[in-house]
Amino acid sequence: MSTSTIPPTTTLATRRKRIIIALTGATGTILGIHALLALRALNVETHLILSKWAENTLKYETDYTVANVRALADFAYSNHDLAAPIASGSFRVDGMIVVPCSMKTLAAINVGYGEDLIARAADVMLKERHRLVLVTRECPLSSVHLENMLGVTRHGAIVFPPVPAFYTRPAGLADVVEHIVGRVLDLFGLEVEGLPRWEGFVRD
Q: Is-annotated flag, keyword DNA repair (predicted)?
């Protein structure tokens, strides 16, 4: 069940950009939280799904509660709610980010096993040819993981491991997180203010 009312129908010309954000149980839930914060600042309408293990992981890794994270989104759904609006291809949406994306979720998306709302919504992104970005979090990678990544890429998704950029000279983990989130949002044509970008070597 949604924690808010179903958004009213609007025209493509008048509605805000909409992005689905899904958090799974992989480590790195702070990336999903910062994605929600960045999208709120950009006035993007967000539709959030938290898996059962994402709820446990975020409480272990951060000071956020599940209620805190749900409050960052415009709409939030149970991962068991396969009747949610975002489970249908008729729902207008501009894309989806699974951040972080566990290897279990990656595998489900690759084979089209839409047992829960995260996998179903991702399957809808692929069939409707919407942008789907999977911020996959695992290390090291087995051949099973790599084959699933290749599979979803062939299906049209973008695999985005959260690899830090050191040319920005991050002062700490917060800088790394912000840069990764900014680069993910680049894939949706969204500009995060102040995001450091490579401009070539500075010559003396």
A: no
